[in-house]
Design goal:
The chain is an alpha/beta fold and 109 residues long. The protein has helices at 5-11, 29-34, 71-82, 94-101, and strands at 2-4, 22-25, 41-42, 63-66, 88-92.
Length: 109
């Protein structure tokens, strides 16, 4: 299941509306250094499955996973759902779409 960047933006704690959700950045650390969404949890796809334990306390929370354009996040969200994170979703368009629709101050690469 996927959610648009606009929908995710409406429900982040920084927007002040709706149910809080957890943004999970599945890009690599060097990509995160270029641009990140404030408050996101870094869980690189390359660190699965071991790194997922960092999210164990969030199993019942809505998680929105993002990457650069949305391909990796689809795979990571599916993996998370298959491993008990039933509310994990992928952000369509990734951080690139977020920068275009939600926060134009963020650099695009």
């Amino acid at each position: 299941m996927a959610v648009s960047a606009t929908t995710a933006g409406l429900f982040t704690s920084e927007s002040g509306t709706g149910e809080p959700l957890v943004l999970v950045d599945c890009r690599e650390p060097d990509e995160q250094q270029i641009v990140t969404i404030q408050g996101a949890v870094l869980l690189p796809m390359s660190q699965l499955p071991g790194g997922a334990s960092a999210l164990d306390s969030m199993k019942d929370q809505p998680l929105v996973v993002y990457c650069h354009h949305g391909g990796r996040s689809l795979r990571v969200a599916k993996w998370l759902r298959d491993h008990g994170f039933t509310a994990a979703q992928s952000m369509d368009g990734g951080i690139d779409q977020w920068a275009a629709e939600i926060d134009s101050r963020l650099p695009r690469y």
